[in-house]
Amino acid sequence: MKIGALEKSFVELSNGVRGVRTGVKITAQKTQDKEPTIEFIASDETLDRAGEIINAKGWLLDSYKANPVFQNSHQYGDIIFTIGRTEEIEVRANLFGDNYLYQRVRFAVEENPFAKVAYELYRGGFLNAVSVGFKPIKWVEGEKAAPARRVFIEQELIEVSAVSIPANQNALAIAAKKGALNVRFLDECIEQLIPIINAYKRNQQKKTFRIKFNQSGEVLNEPSIDSIRLCALFKALRGAVEKVKR
């Protein structure tokens, strides 16, 4: 199958494969249990702003299931941007027979302060999209895709990411006004960063850094970490909240 115009939108995905990244509108639902998990219903085969349709039944999920991390804005270089993991992902059908991609994400709210922010924004409905990275396998364009510009028939899922939270000023502003984000909450996040930063400083000579994802001892990631960058991120969020509250 010819790549053609599609190749212009290709980027390098986290596994080194070249593919497509695109935003997908979702419905976020808090699960009934007390765990920090949210169900995402995404990719329901509706026409997106780019004039494309993703066939939900065409998702190939094995590659993503092998490393089911949930990142912020497709950033893989720093541990702070791994904000959760996918515990379940599959293609489902609603009562009308329409297919959609279902995903249940557990947010690392106890281990990663940045995950707290993401969790609160999704739980409160202030964010309503995720970003997916995939390798196109089969697609049609032109008249065969009408009324869309392009229809992806089969695609291999590589990444699922939250939309860029620091850049999402509207969501932050609305969340701050409704009390979902406040200065005290962000101060707690900054305080939680202190042991992470100290651990990094102790271990940077060893060129290794480990942080546990949960009580079972599962390792979240092991890259280097920039303490100044982390503090700056939360101070920026804190400043944005203070500005809105004035």
Description:
Helix content is 26%, strand content 33%. By secondary structure, the chain is of the alpha+beta class. The chain has two domains: 4-162, no CATH class; 169-245, no CATH class. Strands 2-3-8-7-6-10-9 form a seven-stranded mixed barrel. It has a two-stranded antiparallel sheet with strand order 11-12.
Gist of the model:
By secondary structure, this protein is α+β, with helices and mostly antiparallel strands. The protein has helices spanning 62-65, 113-123, 169-177, 183-203, 227-245; strands at 11-12, 18-30, 37-42, 52-54, 59-60, 69-72, 82-93, 99-107, 129-141, 150-162, 211-212, 219-221.
Q: Give the averaged pLDDT, no decimals.
A: 77
How many separate domains? Answer: 2
Oligomer: single chain
Order of helices and strands: EEEEEHEEEHEEHHEEH
What best-fitting shape do the alpha-carbon axes yield?
globular
Task: List how many beta strands DSSP finds.
Answer: 12
| Rg from Cα | 19 Å
Strand order of the largest sheet: 2-3-8-7-6-10-9
Helix content: 25-40%
Strand content: 25-35%
Please report the number of helical segments: 5
In terms of structural class, how would the helical and strand content be classed?
alpha+beta
**Sheet with the most strands?**
7 strands, mixed, barrel
- CA(first)-CA(last) distance: 56 Å
Low-confidence stretches: 205-226
